[in-house]
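Entry 14. Structure prediction run on the chain below.
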Amino acid sequence: MNNIFKSLLAAAVVAPALTGCVEETFPTSGATQDQLAASSKATEALLWAMPAYYNTFDIMDNGQAYDWGYGALMHVRDVMTSDFAVCASGYDWFSAWEQNQYIGPMYMRTQWYWNFYNKQVLTCNNLMASLDLATADEAQKTFYGAGLAFRASTYLDMARVYEFLPNDGTSSVNLNGNDVTGLTVPIVTETTTEADSRNNPRVPVRRCSSSSSATSTRPSSSSLPEFRPPTAGTTSPTSPWSTDSRHAHTCGLRTIQRLQNMPARPSTPASTLR
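Output returned:
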């Protein structure tokens, strides 16, 4: 018995000394932001995560049959408009949207719609947050441009879904007593902080006719060099963007312009896309 006690005591004394020789490890089920930024393969994986997310199903983790990816969101929009003929059925997982029932703020299917879009935005922000344009190579700059385009496309969808339009059946004043006419959703980017999120109002849609003198409230770009397309395979002397990445950036910019219904400004720099 004494020998057993002595063995256990010796093990207890030696164990702390042995831990100093063990290298720090990270969980294999995830990665830190620093690890992602240091790995070119991880950055590429973040790029492909954006289109892959469109096929993600059961994001609410409760087995709802309507929760099968971006296609389901497209189907919801179809059945709520005149794009899809809705027939009476005794078994239809989209009947709530077809009949405009059970889709209020207290219902899970409403939360599912919001969660799907915002997780897609998070996927885009994760990619762009892992890149430093000051040190990024040409491929990484192209990745960044793709992130801008995917995120802008997502917000375009959200604007069409969440903007309140005047009608004769529903009041524009919400449960909190706020008039939400013409408001879309808050914009969250890879640089948005927690403090920013606490004061991040819904973005209004600005509609400008061709004869309107209205101007954008976004930061002025007069102090920044105008982009001039470089020759094939080179980088513009006035811009850090390659031809391909600038093309992707322009696609993202044009999507945002459609969201705001503003005149095209292809020379607007990336710093104004927030």
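The chain has nine helices and no strands.
Filed with the rest of this week's runs.
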